[in-house]
Amino acid sequence: MKQASTGAWKLWLGRRWLLVAAGFLFLFCLSHLGLKLTHHTEGYDAWAGTIRFFQASVSPSFTDENPRLPADATPFLARLGEDLIRTIRYALIATAIAIPAGLVLGLLASSHWLPKFLRWPVRIFLSLLRSIHELIWAIFFLSAVGDAALSACLALAFPFAGTLAKVYSELIDEQKRSAHDLIRGAGGGRAQAFLSGIFPTALPDMITYSLYRFECALRSSAVLGFIGIETIGLTIHRSFENFYYGEVWTALYLLIGTILAIETFGSFIRRRLSQASSPKQTTEQNPTEETLRKSAPRDLPLRASALAWLSIIGLAFILGPSLVNSVPEGQRAERLSRFLTKLTPDPVAPSTQLASWSERLTAWKEGSQELMPWLANNWRNPGAEALGNTVIMAIAAVLIAGAGAFLLIPWACRNLASAQPMGLISGRGKIREMISLMIRGFFIVTRAVPEYLYAFLLVGLLGPSAWPLVLALALHNLGILGRLWSEVVENQPAGEARCVIQIGGSRLQCFLAALLPLSLNRFLLFFFYRWESCIREATVLGMLGISSLGYYISIQKNFRQYDDILFFTLLGAGAIILGDLLSDLIRRKLRIGRFDV
After folding, report:
1. Closest CA relative to residue 405, chosen from 338, 331, 475
2. Are the CB atoms for 492 and 519 separated by under 8 Å?
3. Which segments within 404-531 are labelled E, that is strand?
4. At how many degrees (to 10) do helices 516-541 and 466-490 cross?
5. For 347, which DSSP code?
6. How many domains does one find in the chain?
7. 8 A C-beta contact, residue 166 and residue 126
8. Which residue, 30, 58, 290, 515, shows the most beta carbons closer than 10 Å to its own?
9. Which domain holds residue 250?
10. CATH for 459
């Protein structure tokens, strides 16, 4: 056991270059972003405003704070409830669209249906889908189709379909192929072998991840309110800008409570799926097929939950206003054509909005010589600088989140915080258990609020600078990394950790000497996963007025320059895809020991 522990320490020390690189990266981010946290605005005291905002958290409003509203206006709580119902409805419809689309695309991206040279175009398409933020998709769809409700659902469905397809394909590819090969060897068809030997084993993980994506869809649906779509985010936006902080906290508590309720339901489903049900006993010596079918294990709570879930999704489509009722039928084709014309880069755009496809092709050929100078000009001013600021903010945020999670997880993990650490009898532990519970609750609350909402509030309180955006990204990702890393530590084998405790080591020494070296590679996997997400979010956070890609996207949105918006969007998407490739390369080298000392 001592040799194994020594090997684990060598594994940990062999990765010390990562800590050095992270330190230099953070110093570089500090030098680029500066150290000033607040931005001075004449006539406004940022710290006093912050204190007033948090004082309102203990006295949320249940009535309108606006004294000028007419007496017959809809009460505040009723309006807030309607906004929340719309938020949930858009998330439900988007998830209902994204799941079947993600399943089809996931099957195509897996190794079971298409040859490798055909799978790669599908995977690149999926990367593009999920690398464009929901807010940007919403901007495009609002201009193309006009209907806010339909635009909200499609803006959520597109990137979520790409994410679900990626995860589905990976889950399918990770399943053991023994049953699949057995069915094929017995003469079964390809589809039969997949549906009987692969898909059933992947289905539980696919269901639990789909529930998690619905939680994400609910958060993203709320964020769409910040570009004018009527969700609970629009209420928060309006109340905060009018300094009605009590209304803001009421909406925040309602949103957080809803997300926590859905997360609790998801935890229940995941727990039921992980528990194997025993079949009913039968007294027949040679049971028939019908008898075996009747004795098969059935989980009634799961079946009831699935039925309720499908019913709610059906009601989301049927009840409520139509998704496509705000634009007259005759104007839809004209609106779409106008959008496609504006989306085409200016040098190759057709001269008329209703140009045919042949006219568009002709315009593209005639203006192709001017396309590269147009791209180069956008890259020099301001593309390169905006992309650099976006990536630097993402790096700073994920480093802060990772450092915070690293410091907190030894106190948050149940196997270390217990009165009997690693199952061994020890001394007092009630205080540590209480601290662990508080930290895990902190992780839950911080990840329940979307990054964009954090950023909007922090920019309003501290003023426009890069650090409110960095802190918003860091706070949300701290909750996610804290949860993921804690679960990794809790799932590690207890052998080496118990040895440290038995020879008199503390809980912290147990974590550093045994659990951390074994968990490091999985830590890095989740760290790089969140770094990619931070780049994606940082792309749009600039819409709050900070010089990043989102800032220039918001400027061009005001002038309806959709070709420039597309350029900046694809810059961000390219950075995300490169980040994905870089993280895969680093994780692969770590797995094969290329960076070991």
Report:
1. 475
2. yes
3. none
4. 150
5. G
6. 2
7. yes
8. 515
9. 58-66+73-276+301-335
10. 1.10.3720.10
With CA atoms as reference, report the closest residue to 382 among 566, 136, 568: 568
Alpha-carbon dihedral sign for residues 83, 89, 95, 101 = negative
CB 226 within 8 A of CB 472: no
Is there a single domain that holds both residue 24 and residue 62? Answer: no
Are residues 314 and 414 located together in one domain of the fold?
no
Contact yes or no for 197/108 (Cβ under 8 A): no
Cis? peptide before 468, omega within 30° of 0:
no
Give the DSSP H or E segment for 182: helix 178-185
| Helices (runs of H) and strands (runs of E) counted in the chain | 26, 0
Question: What would the pLDDT profile of 544-559 be if each residue is shown by its tens digit?
Answer: 888 889 999 999 888 8
Q: Which two tokens stand for residue 113?
A: 């249906």
* Residues 235 and 148 both lie in one domain: yes
Contacts with 79 (C-beta within 8 Å, 6 or more apart), sequence order: 235
Distance CA 301, CA 268 (A): 10
User: Rg of the chain's alpha carbons, rounded to an integer?
Assistant: 26
CA nearest to 228, candidates 139, 301, 308, 160: 139
Asked if residues 498 and 423 have their Cβ atoms less than 8 Å apart, the reply is yes
Which pLDDT tens digit goes with each residue over 465-486?
889 999 999 999 999 999 888 8
Digit-coded pLDDT (tens) for 89-117: 999 999 999 999 999 999 988 887 778 77
Residue 511 gets which letter from DSSP? I
Mean per-residue pLDDT of the chain: 84
Q: What DSSP assignment string belongs to 63-91?
A: S---TTS-TTSPPHHHHHHHHHHHHHHHH
For residue 244, give both structure tokens.
């009605």
* Rama region for 60: left / alpha / beta (φ>0; ψ in -120 to 50; rest): beta
Say if pTM beats, i.e. exceeds, 0.85: yes
> From residue 122, how far is each of 115, 211, 480 by CA, in Å?
11, 24, 29
Tens digit of each residue's pLDDT (9 = 90 or more) over 231-286: 999 999 999 999 999 999 999 999 999 998 988 888 788 777 766 555 555 565 66
Please report which confidence band the pLDDT of residue 595 belongs to, taking 50, 70 and 90 as the band edges. very low
DSSP per-residue letters across 198-210: THHHHHHHHHHHH
